[in-house]
Amino acid sequence: MKVTVVGAGAVGASCAEYIAMKNFSSEVVLVDIKEGFAEGKAMDLMQTASLNGFDTKITGTTGDYSKTAGSKVAVITSGIPRKPGMTREELIGINAGIVKDVTENLVKHSPDVIIIVVSNPMDTMAYLVHKTSGLPKERIIGMGGALDSARFKYRLAEALDCPISDVDGMVIAAHSDTGMLPLLSKATRNGVSVSEFLDEEKQNTLAEATKVGGATLTKLLGTSAWYAPGAAVSMLVQSIVCDQKKMVPCSVMLDGEYGESDICLGVPCIIGKNGVEKIVNISLTDAEKEKFATAAKAVRDVNGDLKF
Ligand SMILES: NC(=O)c1ccc[n+]([C@@H]2O[C@H](COP(=O)([O-])OP(=O)(O)OC[C@H]3O[C@@H](n4cnc5c(N)ncnc54)[C@H](O)[C@@H]3O)[C@@H](O)[C@H]2O)c1
Question: How far is the CA of 7 from the centre of ligand 1 (A)?
């Protein structure tokens, strides 16, 4: 099965590498606008195949979308990342034009494609793809909650001083520093609520660290992170290609679910061969409902800056 990754930069290349390493897809096509860049990344990655033991064929192209024809899944990572001190929302001006243009090219050559949107501000970019691609809503998935939940689990394990495989948790709502909603009420260690191990202050501290997880890394690295984002995307691609039906929080178009409509926000979804196979309705506390609504309002304000 063919998977296209647009943007051969930090996140795109890392995503292609993880997909190949997991060996579930026959072909990955990397696309970039920078002359020779995707070709170079693809060649370098292919030279790891005999070392890392994968059979996935990785190719690269400078903007020739005919090479992406017949893709089952396409990942959009093209665009600029944030620099220290920037919010994801500040990227909208440049990234909206790129995402719209890339989407048109992808759909032209792969009308049945499932698109995973990664470029920031992700919830708004996913909304843009809905408004401009003509694709059914189950075939547009924004990736944010998968990464934010992984960061939440990292912080949970750190606070509990336990292995990450002991903990479980989800982050929903917006993929932004203020709009993320780590669901402490549902977080567990081996099925036991974390509230049995951590007082409220410790829970709030780790939730806040989760929310600024991206900004913390951007400050350390000078640009935004790529390993965990790449791994999170590859997990979603695998759930589609292998029809795993994993439950993952994804930014999807809401039509009344969680009290919101005409907006893309992170909610738990079943991800399988058809894309978003189901939006899962879970109970939220009153405080969580309020935070979800506040996040929706902020995303709606950013969406208002879009020009179609
Ligand atoms: N949703 C998430 O959880 C998440 C996580 C990390 C990064 N991001 C976002 O992903 C995007 C990429 O981040 P990065 O660190 O890989 O950046 P990067 O600069 O390393 O890579 C971006 C690549 O996109 C390419 N590009 C630009 N315009 C293009 C076009 N029109 N067609 C094809 N390629 C084009 C660039 O040449 C570059 O190689 C950023 O917007 C970043 O904010 C999102």
Answer: 6
Q: What is the count of structural domains for the chain?
A: 2
- The predicted-structure confidence for 9-56, as pLDDT tens digits, reads as follows 999 999 999 999 999 999 999 999 999 999 999 999 999 999 999 999
Q: Identify the residues whose C-beta falls under 6 Å from ligand 1.
A: 6-12, 31-34, 37, 77-82, 91, 95, 98, 101-102, 118-120, 122, 143-144, 147, 175, 223-226, 229
Q: What is the CATH number of the domain that holds 238?
A: 3.90.110.10
Cβ atoms within 10 Å of 32's Cβ, excluding its own: 25
Range of the domain at 179: 145-303
What CATH number should be reported for the domain holding residue 136? 3.40.50.720
Residues 243 and 150 in one domain: yes
Tens-digit pLDDT profile for residues 192-207: 999 999 999 999 999 9
Q: Where are the alpha helices (DSSP H) in the chain?
A: 10-22, 37-46, 49-52, 92-109, 122-133, 145-160, 200-211, 213-221, 227-241, 286-303
